[in-house]
Structures are given as structure tokens and as C-alpha cells.
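User: Fold this, then the next.

Assistant: Folding the first:
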Amino acid sequence: MYKTKEKPEDFIVEEMIDLDNSSGPYLYIKLTKKQWNTLDIISILQKKLHIQRSQIGYAGLKDKQGITTQYFSLFRITKKQIEGLKIKDVVIKPLYNGSKAITLGSLKANKFQIKLNEAPIKIDFIENYFGEQRFSKNNIQIGKCLITNNFKTAYKLITNQESNQPINELRKLDFHLLSLYLSAYQSYLWNKVTETYLETKYSTIEPKNIQIPLISFDAKFKNKKIEVIYKNILKEENITKQNFIIKQFPELINISKVRDLIVKILDFTIEDNKISFTLPKGSYATIVIEKMNYLKNFLNK
């Protein structure tokens, strides 16, 4: 069974992004961190630079696993302020100024370098499931609590504290954090729909690629089979599309997006026990390893 090694250096990921090259008020920085997640780093930057959360732009969320290189935009921050900044296990390189903030739409792809415990096999595509790191311990449950107006339980799961005014307390939290919980629940439902659609978790023959919606109040279905599967799963969850209109938190209401069922793995190379490859934004390297394990087991039967 393929497993990643124990050291952070055995799992390396770097964002691929196009930065604006005109002068402007946004300082771009390249930040390489060891075992830090993105939201924690943003919180540290905010405190050390004495700036608002809205002054920090980023292209994607990364978890604590391994060594990750990300790009951030800092509004009206100078290189001098950055050069004196010290954070444990973090290297920050100021780049140059631009006229546009980095946003979630800025990310093009992610490049991975992973060391495995044994010689790997090469694969060309994955079924585009969300990886387990998307969900963490309680993310799915919190997301469902938010859309079913169970705010008291949501607050307790997030903070491990009770509140008689959970809506007010939840509003004090970082919007991006609440959005992450909602997204985790939508991703969980997408995985369930996709697994049902494929009938088995993986297929040895590449299925035809389609786009499957991430459920929201306005989700449209071009594929009737996907529509039926979603209806059944929503019924099992005892919710409807209208639940995704959260009147108490209108800022969390999002327009439905679609996600490719299949993604190609680009630039896949093998050197000894190391693999390198590139995935489109939003796709997970852990799913690549899961797929490799499935195929290895299939071939050894």
C-alpha cells in the first residue's frame, strides 16, 4: 500500500499562479511554510502586521500537511515591513507590487512532489473526489448545522462553548471560516453523489467526463441521473435546496458551481520512490495516492 513518508519534506506542494505585473498598492509575497494551514498563517500575518483581515489576499487553502508554498497579496504593506517579520517554520520572500489583490480565482494549479514508501505506478487521471482534509473532524456536521439553522450546536462544535446568542457569536467569527464549514458539507454531498453515480468508488476504465454541481439553492442539472441521485441524497439528509438560503447569514449564500467528474494528471514523473505531478486547482493529491492504491490492489488480484 502506498503511503507518504513521515517527514514534512516528503510532501511538497507549490501554487501555480499568474501575478499582476503592474505597479499598485498590493505587495505580493511568496510564503513557504512547514506544517501551517493557510487560515492560521493569515491570522498570524494579521496580528504581526497590525492589519485587517480584508488586507490579505490568497489564492487557495492549504492544510498543515507537509511543506507548502503559497502567494499572498498584502494591501499597503511595504517590503521593509515584511523583511523584519519572523514566524517559526515560515520563509517569506517579498516579490513586487501589483494593482490587483490575489483572490480564490487567481490559482491556476498546484504542483506536488511526494515521497512514497515504495516504488509507485503511473496513472493518468483521477475521479475528482474531495480529499479527507477538506472535512476535518466536525466540518461536515457544522456545515449542516448552519443550513438547518441549528446555530447553537454549530457554535458549540466550533468553539466548544455554549451560547444563548449563537447567531451573534457566530457573526464574530471569521467569515472565511464559516464559509469553509458550509463548503465542507457541500463537498461531502458532492462526493456521495459522485460515488453513487460511478456505482463503485473507482473505475479502471476512464468514465466519460461530466460536470456535477455543488449543491446550492440555484443548482441546475443537465444530467437527469445526477438530478435523481441528488434528490435521493437530499431526502436522506432531510434537507432541500432552499436550506442553502441562510437568512441569518446572507453573506454565506453562494451561487452553485460545477466540478469536473474527471481530471487529468499533468506532468506525472517518477524518480525512485518520488512522484511529481500537477493538478488543477481544487483537486487533491491524496486522491491520486488513493487511486494508485486501488489500481495496485486490482492488478495484484
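Now the next one, as you asked:
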Amino acid sequence: MKKLNILFLFIIFSCQDNYENCLDLEYGTEYIKITGVSKSEKNYFKYFCKTTEVFGIKIYATEGVKNEKLLHAASVMAEYLDNDENGLVDNQKVLDKLIDKKVWLLVIEEGLDFDDAARNPPVNYHHFQDLYNEEISLINGSPRFDATLEEVLHVITQHGYAEAYPDIFGENKDSEVAKAMDIARGGYFKNVPNSYPTNAWYTYNDQSCDYSCQITEYTYWALTSILGAQEYSGRLNQIKNEWRLNTKDKVENTDIAIYGLLTNQEYKFPTKLPNGKYRLD
């Protein structure tokens, strides 16, 4: 298992006009530290001014992303991968796939051209998930749902679990998670239907989300509901058009198939919801 003694969060300022102001930056905790980098590194990125590495997984951010929000995103990533926070990744097989695929998380400020930045990733990094600065809530549910819990999990399940256990979590029709999803949707639908059966409890209706994407979203809804992320006051009304099982009890009693998969200790899914305070009391 990969040891994480101290998680360093390095801030790289490639923006020429502001770089000199950030050389002495120090921010973070005992386990996650944010610092400025040497002048020799300032020209490495064209679009991304800040970066971190969590168990070998890269996170890059644009200049306007707040330091505390980038720290939060890195902490959530660390907590998902090392859920008991003992400094060891919980599922090495999943981490190996993430590293092999060179996945990364893009944290971007509002108002920037996301498509332009995404077309120019850091060298040799291809598979990424985006997360906007305004979507990050340091406390889940206050003032809004913390999208970090969703986007970081997408990276881990889509490129980690799906690759490490293709027969179980593969994002294709024949996997076990796909079979569970088809039950939750009230049948098999290669594309998003015009309407779902009345007995369906997973009714994601984004027409741009293909079958594999539907599995990514389904896994997110189920696991975060089991962990308690979706049950704060008013949340069910916000999400019931996509997902109706917003608590652990509802998932356990209704979606028996996915509950069995996500709580099977063999796969070492998180059992505690990340709070953005990795290894802190």
C-alpha cells in the first residue's frame, strides 16, 4: 500500500504578472501544505496556476480559485482514498488504475473559458473531471451541496473502480452495477428515455449523458446517499427528479443490489463521508 506521510499541496504560479507576489505563500495543515514554487517552475503551465498531488493523483487549479477551496478539494480526495485516515490508501488496486490512466482534477474559477483550458492539459494528463470554485462548499449543505463530493468521486469510480473491477463496476451493460442501475431506472435504456417508468427511483434525464455516464451518476447518488450527504433539510426536494433514495435506509431497503455492492468490504468503498479535514480532529 502506498504510504502518505505528508500530503504536499504545491501552488505553481505561471501567471507572469502575479508570480512574484506568491513566492512566499504558506498555507495548509500538518498534512496538507500549500506553498509557492521556485522561479524555475513558473513557466510550466499556461492555464493552471495551482496544483496538488494526492496519492499520486494531480489536481490543478486556475489562479482565482481560493486556496481554502483547493485545500478542501485535495482533502476530500485524500479522505475518499484513505477513508480511515491512517496515511495508507484503502484500495491500492483502484489507486493503481487511477495513476495508470493519469487522471486529474481541474478546479476552475468562474468566468474562464473552460473548454480552452481543458484542451490544454498538463503534459501527459488526459482523463479529467472539472470542478468550479463556486460549486465548492466547505460545509456540505451550508449554503449548498458540496459538489466536491460528487466530482472527486466521479474520478475515482469512473477511472478507478470501473477499471479495477470491470465485471462488477465496469461502465457497460453487462457489469453488476449496470444490472443494478437498470433495476433502479425501471428497465434497460441505452439512451435517456422521454420518460421513466413510475416505479423507477433513478431518473437522471440529461440527454447528453450516455449509458456509461448514467452509471457514473448512479454510483455517485447511491454512495453519497449511503454516506449521508443527501439527507440534509430540503435536499430531497432538490434532487427527487433524478434520485429518490436520499438516505442510507432508503438505499438499503429499496436498492438492495447497489447497496450490497457498495458496502461489500472486498471493494473498500468509503464508509465515512469526507468533510474536507483530512487527518484533522
